[in-house]
Write a structure and sequence with these properties.
It is built from three helices and five strands, in the order αβαββββα. The protein has a single domain, classed as 2-Layer Sandwich (Metal Transport, Frataxin, Chain A), CATH 3.30.920. Helix 1 packs across helix 2. Helices cover 40% and strands 24% of the residues. It has a three-stranded antiparallel sheet, covered by helices on one side. A two-stranded antiparallel ribbon has the order 1-5. By secondary structure, the protein is an alpha+beta fold.
Length: 84
Amino acid sequence: MNKNQQRTLWQIFERPERSDIPWSKIEGLLAAVGAELSEGRGSRVRVSLNGVRAVFHRPHPERMTDKGAVKSVRRFLQEAGVTP
C-alpha cells in the first residue's frame, strides 16, 4: 500500500465522516489491500476481501463519496480485518 492509499484509509476511518473522498481513491485502496472487485449492474461494484462480501454503488454524476457510503466502506474494511 502506497502513501496515497494509506492516507485514504485514514480518511475513511476519521470521525466525523468525510464527504470529500473520491470514489476512485477508495477503489484503489480496496485493490491495494487485495480485494477482488467486479462490476455489477448499473453503478454497482461487488467487493470481496478475506471472506467478507459487499456491494457498493459508485457515486454519479459526482465523483465524491457521501458520508453514508464512507461508513459502509469503513464497516466492510473492519469486518475484513483492515484498519489504519
